[in-house]
Amino acid sequence: MRKVLGLTVIGVALVLGVQVPGESARATLAASELHLRLVRDGRTRFHVEAEATVAAPKAVVWDTIRDYDHLARFVPMLVTSHRTQYNGRPVIEQVGRATFMFIHFDAKAVLEETFDPAADSLTLRAVAGDFVRFESSWHVTSISPTVTSINVTSEAQLKRWIPQWLERWQVRKTLAHSLRALLIEMERRAQS
User: Fold this and answer.
1) 83 part of a folded domain
2) 189: nearest Cα among 71, 21, 94
3) pLDDT tens digits for range 113-129
4) Residue 5 lies inside a defined structural domain of this protein
5) Strand 121-129, strand 103-116: pairing
6) Are 113 and 136 in contact (CB under 8 A)?
7) What is the pLDDT of residues 133-184, one digit of tens each?
8) Residues 6 or more apart from 186 whose CB is under 8 A from it?
9) What are the tens digits of pLDDT across the range 60-117?
10) Is residue 108 part of a domain?
11) Is 38 inside a domain boundary?
12) DSSP string covering 111-134, please?
């Protein structure tokens, strides 16, 4: 039986393990709010819903989310992230690393992006890699000229089996850290 796990933050970043960002990085996030829910869709299936408010203009938020060539610099579990071509189409290729105690593994995703600035939405969908299914939907709304709301719903199914308890634990552990890293970078860019 294949396990389904919920994800968010860009591509592979949500599935995989992460080193916890330093205390100074966490302190920087004081202006942002983050709410995260793992929602059960059945006995072995769940998805992730995340909401965040960040002290950054909408343009900075989109620029940070879509900065695929530099995401690995500030999203801790991403080993690589870059734009490339797959079957003649533009895609994002990401490799993330999961760590649990002394065990680690890498997972690759080749993601197709559908960005609709008029609808303030972005969808990432796996077209190749280590996922049977991966889809992440992002919606961004300006609350004020300097504050933005972000809503994300993500679901993925890895090709390899991972115990369900470990999936849930790993998602809870990494998702909050990954989103915080993204929000911290948004705030840093907004202040520059």
Assistant:
1) yes
2) 71
3) 999 999 999 999 999 99
4) no
5) antiparallel
6) no
7) 889 999 999 999 999 999 998 887 777 666 666 666 666 666 777 888 999 9
8) 54, 56, 60, 61, 64, 148
9) 999 999 999 999 999 988 899 999 999 999 999 999 877 777 777 788 999 999 999 9
10) yes
11) yes
12) EEEEEEGGGTEEEEEEEEESEEEE
Non-local CB neighbours of 42 within 8 Å, separated by 6+ positions: none
3-state secondary structure of 161: coil
Domain, as residue range, for 44: 11-191
pLDDT tens-digit series, residues 12-31: 343 333 333 333 333 344 44
Residue the block writes with tokens 């939907």:
137
82 close to 109: Cβ distance less than 8 angstroms: no
* Single-letter amino acid code for the residue at 80: T
By the 10 Å C-beta count (0-12 exposed, 13-18 middle, 19+ buried), 189 is classed as middle
Domain tally for the chain? 1
Separation CA 51–CA 43 (nearest Å): 24
96 backbone dihedrals φ, ψ, rounded to 5°: -120, 160
Instruction: Return the CATH number at 51.
Output: 3.30.530.20
